[in-house]
Write a structure and sequence with these properties.
167 residues, mainly alpha, globular, disordered N terminus
Length: 167
């Protein structure tokens, strides 16, 4: 095995590790903000938040499914965070955007995630449909900017700032 193959293999393992850790961090920050926000505003328990997430696939059955549905909601939530993290990493590698604007990219990505999730994914899922109100828009957008967009962007740029790679 030549050294080029070894270093490429190490880089791939490093990249996978940073993507997984970033998704874990962003997913944790996001779900904690959702749990705290829904509890403070509406008195909704964390279990109900995870059941709501699970209802995207299982519909109303998620609300009577007990711990299995809570576990499904947790898994779905972190899987979605992983998807958004992977998308960011691959968009930026493909377009080779500069690192000078990492905060702007994080802000824009958080807004993009909010738009796609709230205007496409959730309405097309089996979750209970709630009327759109502006009361939840600002906190929702800010949470996704600060807890998904910025952590993912900063992690991406930190990973690649130490690399002498052509992306």
């Amino acid at each position: 095995m030549n050294s080029g193959a070894i270093s490429k293999n190490v880089i791939n393992k490093e990249l996978i590790k940073i993507i997984l850790l970033t998704a874990l961090l962003a997913g944790t920050l996001d779900i904690l903000s959702a749990i705290i926000n829904t509890y403070v505003q509406y008195g909704i328990s964390p279990g109900r938040v995870f059941r709501f997430i699970a209802s995207g696939v299982f519909g109303d059955n998620a609300y009577s499914g007990g711990l299995v549905m809570i576990a499904a909601g947790i898994i779905f939530h972190y899987f979605i965070a992983l998807i958004w993290t992977v998308i960011f990493f691959f968009i930026f590698i493909k377009f080779n955007l500069s690192s000078c604007c990492k905060y702007i990219y994080g802000l824009a990505y958080g807004i993009l995630v909010w738009l796609v999730m709230n205007l496409i994914v959730v309405p097309l899922s089996n979750t209970p449909h709630h009327p759109f109100t502006f009361k939840g828009v600002l906190p929702g957008v800010l949470f996704l900017i600060f807890f998904i967009g910025l952590p993912v962007s900063l992690s991406y740029h930190k990973y690649y700032s130490g690399k002498n790679l052509r992306r």
